[in-house]
Every structure is written in C-alpha cells, then in structure tokens.
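[Solved] Which block belongs to which protein?

Original post:
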Amino acid sequence: MTEPLEKRLEKAMAELHDAQEAIARTERELRQASFAVLSSDRAVRATVGPQGELAGIEFLDHKYRDMSPQELAASVLEAAGAARVKMNRHVMKAMAPFTEPSSGIPELKGFELDWERIFGPEVLREDDDDKARGDQATPAWRDALGEDGED
C-alpha cells in the first residue's frame, strides 16, 4: 500500500525546509572561510578568501631578499594556487550533501555538478596534505590565527 499523497507532500516540504536551512548555514560558513598556504620553500604564505580571491600575501623570514624576482613570483603563485585549490575543495565538501539524492523521498534526486568544469582539474586530484590530515578542513580558529598547520 502506498503512502497517501498528502503525507508524501508533507515529508517533501519538511525535507525542503531542512535543505533550505542547511544551505543557508553552508552559505554563511563559506562566506567566512579562508585558507592560507605556505609555498614549498616556506618564503611566502598566501591567503585566499571565500571566492578564491587573493586576500593576503606574507613574505616570511625575509627570505625574499635572497630570491630572484622569478623565484619570488613562483613562490607567490605556488602558494596562492594551492590556497585556491584548498578553498575549492572546501566548497566541494560543503556542497556535497546537496548533490546527493534524498534518502526519505525517492523523487528528490539531488543534482550533479561538474566540479572539474567549475574549478579546474586540479581540484579532483588527491592532495597529500588532505591524506595526512584525514581529509579534514583546517579548523576556523587556526585559520583565523594564521596557523594553517603547515609550520
């Protein structure tokens, strides 16, 4: 025996309401997010904001003084690119629940996103840092203090 239409509609509306609240929470969290990454030579720390925009550059320990302009530029680009990829992956993880089908209402299928088309292919590559940390995002308090766990 199938469930009455009114009951199914009530469940669907409740799930829609829960999804809307979850999306609003996720949007608020993402608007506050930032990621900072050190270059491999540890000369530069780049911070990106919630849309992957460059929000800050720090030149560490006066290492830039002994670097050629090309080396410094490479360090800046490396750190900024890695921070942008971390932010993109964070967005993917935050949005993943909204792409999955509903467990309670089979008619709500979720939606597919082509993350590679949106963020580029590097976002789908496995990251050594993510594996080492168990694939967890940097806690907001560490990020706010400029402590990205890479020191």
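(Second protein starts here: sequence line, then its structure tokens.)
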Amino acid sequence: MIRSDQSRNEEEKAMNIRFETVDKSEFDAFRRDVMDIFAIAATEEFGDATGEDIISEEDINKSLFSPNADVYHIYLDEIKIGGVSVSIDPATQRNSLDLFYIYPSYHNRGYGQLIWKSIEEKYPQTRVWELITPYFEKRNINFYVNKCGFHITEFFNKHHKDTRSDILDTEFREEYFRLEKTMIDNTR
C-alpha cells in the first residue's frame, strides 16, 4: 500500500508529539498560559475592552485540582507547544476536555488535530468526550466540529441556562456551546 506524502508527514509529526505530566509546582505557569492564550480570542472578538478574563483563575483551578484531572504539557520533539487538562471518569468513561491550548506560533500547522488524536489514543476506553466553548470562539467550534468529529449538543444562553455548578463562572458563561463526541464502543 502506497501512502501519500501528506499521510507520511502527519505520521511523522504525531510521532514527535508527547505529553508530559504537569507537576503541581508548575500549575501557576500553566494557569498563566491558559489565561493568556484564551484571552487572544476574546481580544480578537471584542477588543481590549472586555475588562474580564475569558476564564478565571478559579475556573482553571477547578480543572487542575479536580481529583480526576490529568494535566499535561504538550511537546513537539523537545519544544513545549501547549497544554491540556482532561477529566477522566473511570466508572462512566464520560470524560471531558477541560483545557486545551496551543501556542499561537504553532496554530494552522495541523498539530491541534494530531494532538487530539493522540489524546483519544491515550484514553481508548472513553465512551463520550465532552467540552464547552464560548459562542464567539469560531476557531474552536470549527476545530472541534469539522476537524475532530464533535457535535454541538446544547447552546446555553439566557433562555436555556446550564444548571451544573461545575461550569465556568464568568461573563462568557452567558452564551456557550456544549459539544460531545461519542466514541466507538470498545467493550464488545
């Protein structure tokens, strides 16, 4: 079977992507990265006038210190290019992607999709992946729906409020999407 050059290039990139567990002593730096990178989208959409972080330190801490959290730096070879925090529920295998960022200098190179595939491979028992993203984050919505196979399952807004207590508590909580990806049932 002859593989295309693009297929070979993707495989080579994926082989060079690795996850390194973030030590609790590194959570402050991880938190700053999340806040800085998430702020880029808000600034692009609303300018510098928002006056509020798109995600608060408290919300990030909920993800980082969750008992089910796995928090990683993402490396391409020896260069850190981003980070991810997932919550893994071993009982239900309904897992969530809580935080995921890639440094802007690595955007639009296909790394996001390769990283997501690597996350799926790292947690093969997952039945459903879930995440939320703000309504204005068109780049995220495009990535998760069109590149990673998620489906929008709910749009939370003033007419349809999210009653879960573990969801973001910022002004951007007013309108956001919940997305899900159902995985192939590996238990059969």
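Accepted answer:
You had them paired correctly. Confirming on the second one: The helical segments are 5-16, 27-46, 57-64, 111-122, 138-147.
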